[in-house]
Write a structure and sequence with these properties.
about 300 residues, alpha/beta, two-stranded parallel sheet, globular, binds zinc ion
């Protein structure tokens, strides 16, 4: 009798665990690369609207130390494109670090840590703001945890940008003005994509190979915008659609994993190991639902 009761309890548990592991194996794909998406790195900005675009220096340092101590392979887009072109295997635990919008704090806070560990990174800048010695307009009213760190609201200077470029980080275009491409007519889309490239190339004295869509999620760009990015001479483009990438991924809308201050170290570990790769499905469903509600 006890044997049968035990079977009734244990069998469903075994079946559940087995199913869970099968689903996990299906969702967390091997031979994939995760592109992490950061924005501001520094004194945490306490503005609610900015909660998803600012990671404190303490949290960022701990996350980078974790990647270094645990032998993650921090490669860059050049490496990934080579792997893809030559149909090679993606190295295990492959990660690309990306920073959007061009905050001076990427240079002041993130760059020393990136160079300490000999990591690589992609810095995407909005060209209109380079060298403007005033805070980004969307941060004017924001409160910093450490109010002495006012320079953390500033855009990158030309000198800071050149130093990171000379070191070997990739500098990508994030358009001229950071407007969603879906809000612009195609002539303005072309201007945003082409002029920002030329502007950056004049500053850096080398080809700018990568583009990052402003906002970059479902509905922020279309097939035609992707085509314009490609014909402008960019070799790859980053979106904010959530997910991991493999050698079959569309190089003109690479997916990324957003990293938030609230992730700390524990959620970060799960994210870099693939536990959040599948959440792009919910991002897509929520976009579709919003569209239906708007109708
Ligand atoms: Zn942006």
């Amino acid at each position: 009798m006890a044997y049968y009761i035990l079977c009734i309890i244990i069998w469903p548990i075994i079946l559940f665990v087995d199913l869970f592991l099968k689903i996990k194996r299906f969702l967390v794909k091997k031979n994939s690369i995760r592109i992490l998406n950061y924005h501001s790195i520094g004194s945490h900005i306490k503005d609610k609207s900015f909660i998803y675009a600012s990671v404190s220096l303490k949290v960022f340092s701990a996350q980078m130390k974790f990647l270094y101590d645990n032998n993650f392979n921090i490669i860059d887009l050049d490496d990934f494109l080579k792997i893809k072109k030559n149909k090679q295997q993606i190295p295990p635990k492959a990660i690309i670090l990306t920073f959007d919008d061009g905050y001076a704090n990427n240079y002041i806070n993130a760059f020393p840590i990136i160079s300490k560990y000999s990591f690589k990174a992609v810095i995407s800048v909005i060209t209109e703001y380079i060298d403007k010695n005033i805070p980004f307009p969307w941060l004017n009213q924001s409160v910093l945890e450490d109010e002495d760190d006012k320079n953390l609201k500033l855009p990158l200077s030309m000198k800071q940008l050149k130093t990171m470029n000379d070191y070997g980080l990739s500098i990508a275009s994030h358009t001229r003005s950071h407007r969603s491409l879906s809000q612009l007519d195609k002539q303005d889309v072309m201007k945003e994509i082409l002029e920002s490239k030329k502007n950056l190339e004049d500053i850096l004295g080398k080809k700018v190979k990568y583009f990052t869509y402003p906002y970059g999620s479902w509905g922020d760009y279309d097939k035609e915008d992707k085509r314009i990015v490609e014909s402008a001479g960019y070799e790859a483009a980053l979106s904010t659609k959530v997910g991991a990438n493999n050698i079959k991924s569309d190089i003109y809308e690479l997916r990324r994993i957003p990293i938030y201050n609230i992730d700390g170290l524990s959620k970060f570990k799960r994210k870099v190991n693939g536990a959040y790769d599948f959440t792009g499905i919910f991002q897509y469903i929520s976009f579709k639902l919003k569209k239906i509600i708007k109708r």
